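Saturday, quiet lab. Running sequence design on the structure tokens for the scaffold JK sent over.
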């Protein structure tokens, strides 16, 4: 019975193997096995292990066929660790040639030090050995998973191993090895009966169904003989309606691709479209030829990946994803509450949204929040700043391009933002900066719900929710002839206006408190005190740069530990001399010459602790002890609220 080792026991076995390797005198700089069978001895070994090879060999080939594109190699050894069979990715096999890992080479500790095969045979258990768990240094960038094979009496008769570079390994490799070994052992222990064949088929199917992409096999005429569960999901058909049909029924371009396969060529990452029920979906397809014992093409193995999933991974690793939610919109003003509630209600609508507001008001934060509140949240959020892209590049950025579209075009072409956002949301920031000729092309894409890559002629359907944003008055831009009226009405199906900070001053204290806490943590600084006069100045300032300007100021304030001089910092370059406080607000300020006042003058300082205590007490009173609303109003969690109440000893 195969056991899976993990935790301390796993580490103990690896340490023990390293100790034995050391005692055997294996050098860590060794690059090749010390023991390799002669040609005659290998022939005798293959004859002696004929039964094991005849049963396990097809599984080695099956694993090779379904993992060929992943860069793995598969080894079958005898009970002493001598390699009987070796298969795998062509480039990887080329990479290991200097290591002389060939049929007849010994993978024992005495020959090559601690490795997955040697430990699996020594400890009679399945094991995964990664990186420096290998004894010799040349294998430190490898991860190997191995399990011993037992005969009908329970004795070890061989070992099955999958090896690959560390960055290619995924967590289910060891489970895949164990499942394959169980299937092999079942074959070893059973007669060649129909029951055994069905059981082996079930194990192989389970292996296929652990893969996260569609896999199907065809015969030499292109008829589908087998398909895994993911294929059924991608094609939206049960397996019995896929198998025994020609792949051309699904992919019109299949004859051209299969011609390459018949010439023993591999097709890699080909974009194909599959038509079903009047809908077209785009897939990434790779095709690998299969050969029989005489080297003739007998069929192919095809892999299918949903392009939406591919693009989602691209977006994830290139940082194109939505990070903000409605909870990140700080503000308790009636206007902000209304905007948030309104945007939550329209989040799931497929209609376009036009967010208008001055720079720094948080238009992209709101756009990301709408996306993350919608049913599209698990798909891409792709942003494009229309004002930051040169006019000559904006079309290819939006719609992508085909190979050879222009001199510097990448081989194979490149998808644009529309394709990357397929199924998700495309955020077009600074839409008012878009050149007029591009406005026409954008309007056509929105109306047809399809795009054509630059240099191409194929219409690619896209399912994209558009959110646009601008700090310009587009109606005035229309009058000036700089923005198309038809595009404006196509974009502003759902208009949203974010008011500037000066029109919602009641949000400023909460923002100050939020940014002070955030920046002190981010900058690893002690929370600085803020005097009451400065606090009021910040509240009554117009903030032409809105939330972004306030955030930048607080970051500067925290960086300097609160040691800012009003005369230099505000009454000069930042324009605080242009106060627009109401007469009542002006009268409420202490009468003192601001140029004589500094932020750290003790007589006028009110600590943030006192301000925070006062804010908590007032919020509790306003919201009638509803702690959920109190916490939300203060921009903190309920747990943090209760901790502060306890810390300050407030009687609430």
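Result came back. Writing it out in full:
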């Amino acid at each position: 019975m195969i056991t899976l080792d993990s935790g301390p026991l796993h580490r103990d076995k690896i340490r023990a193997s390293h100790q034995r390797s050391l005692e055997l005198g294996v050098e860590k700089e060794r690059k090749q096995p010390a023991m390799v069978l002669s040609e005659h001895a290998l022939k005798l070994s293959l004859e002696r292990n004929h039964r094991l090879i005849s049963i396990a060999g097809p599984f080695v080939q099956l694993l090779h066929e379904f993992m060929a594109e992943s860069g793995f190699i598969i080894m079958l050894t005898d009970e002493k660790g001598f390699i009987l069979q070796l298969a795998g990715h062509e480039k990887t096999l080329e990479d290991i040639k200097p290591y002389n890992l060939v049929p007849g080479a010994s993978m024992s500790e005495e020959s090559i030090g601690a490795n997955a095969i040697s430990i699996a045979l020594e400890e009679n258990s399945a094991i995964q050995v990664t990186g420096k768990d290998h004894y010799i240094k040349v294998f430190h960038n490898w991860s190997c998973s191995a399990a011993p094979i037992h005969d009908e009496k329970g004795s070890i008769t061989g070992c099955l191993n999958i090896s690959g570079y560390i960055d290619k390994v995924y967590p289910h490799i060891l489970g895949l090895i164990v499942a394959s070994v169980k299937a092999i052992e079942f074959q070893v222990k059973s007669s060649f009966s129909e029951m055994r064949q069905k059981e082996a088929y079930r194990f192989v199917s389970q292996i296929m169904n652990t893969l996260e992409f569609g896999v199907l096999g065809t015969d030499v005429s292109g008829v589908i003989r087998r398909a895994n569960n993911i294929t059924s999901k991608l094609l939206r058909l049960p397996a019995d309606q896929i198998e025994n049909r020609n792949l051309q029924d699904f992919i019109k371009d299949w004859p051209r691709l299969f011609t390459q396969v018949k010439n023993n060529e591999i097709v890699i990452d080909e974009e194909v479209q599959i038509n079903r029920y009047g809908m077209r979906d785009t897939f990434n397809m790779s095709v690998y030829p299969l050969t029989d014992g005489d080297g003739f093409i007998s069929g192919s193995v095809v892999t299918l990946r949903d392009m939406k999933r591919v693009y989602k991974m691209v977006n994830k690793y290139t940082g194109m994803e939505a990070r903000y939610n409605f909870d990140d919109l700080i503000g308790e003003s009636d206007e902000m509450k209304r905007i948030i509630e309104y945007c939550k209600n329209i989040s799931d609508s497929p209609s376009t949204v036009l967010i208008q507001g001055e720079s720094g008001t948080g238009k992209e934060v709101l756009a990301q929040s709408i996306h993350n509140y919608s049913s599209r949240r698990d798909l891409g959020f792709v942003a494009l700043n229309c004002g930051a892209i040169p006019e000559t590049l904006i079309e290819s950025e939006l719609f992508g391009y085909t190979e050879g579209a222009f001199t510097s075009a990448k081989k194979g072409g490149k998808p644009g933002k529309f394709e990357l956002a397929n199924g998700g949301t495309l955020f077009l920031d600074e839409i008012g900066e878009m050149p007029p000729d591009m406005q026409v092309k954008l309007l056509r894409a929105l109306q047809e719900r399809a795009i054509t890559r630059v240099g191409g002629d194929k219409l690619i359907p896209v399912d994209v929710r558009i959110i646009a944003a601008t700090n310009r008055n587009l109606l005035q831009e229309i009058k000036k002839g700089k923005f198309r009226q038809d595009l404006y009405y196509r974009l502003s199906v759902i208009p949203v206006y974010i008011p500037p900070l000066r029109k919602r001053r009641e949000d400023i204290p909460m923002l100050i408190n939020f940014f002070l806490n955030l920046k002190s943590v981010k900058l690893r600084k002690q929370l600085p005190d803020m005097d009451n006069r400065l606090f009021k100045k910040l509240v009554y300032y117009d903030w032409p740069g809105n939330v972004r300007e306030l955030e930048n100021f607080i970051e500067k304030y925290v960086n300097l530990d609160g040691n800012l001089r009003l005369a230099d910092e505000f009454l000069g370059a930042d324009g605080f001399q242009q106060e627009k406080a109401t007469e009542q607000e002006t009268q409420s300020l202490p009468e003192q010459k601001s140029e004589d006042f500094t932020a750290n003058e003790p007589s006028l300082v009110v600590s943030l602790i006192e301000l925070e205590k006062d804010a908590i007490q007032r919020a509790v009173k306003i919201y009638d002890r509803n702690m959920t609303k109190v916490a939300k109003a203060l921009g903190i969690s309920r747990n943090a609220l209760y901790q502060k109440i306890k810390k300050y000893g407030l009687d609430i």
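Notes for JK: Residues 50-67 form the longest helix (18 residues). The chain is about 40% helix and 15% strand. Ask whether to fix the surface positions before the next round.
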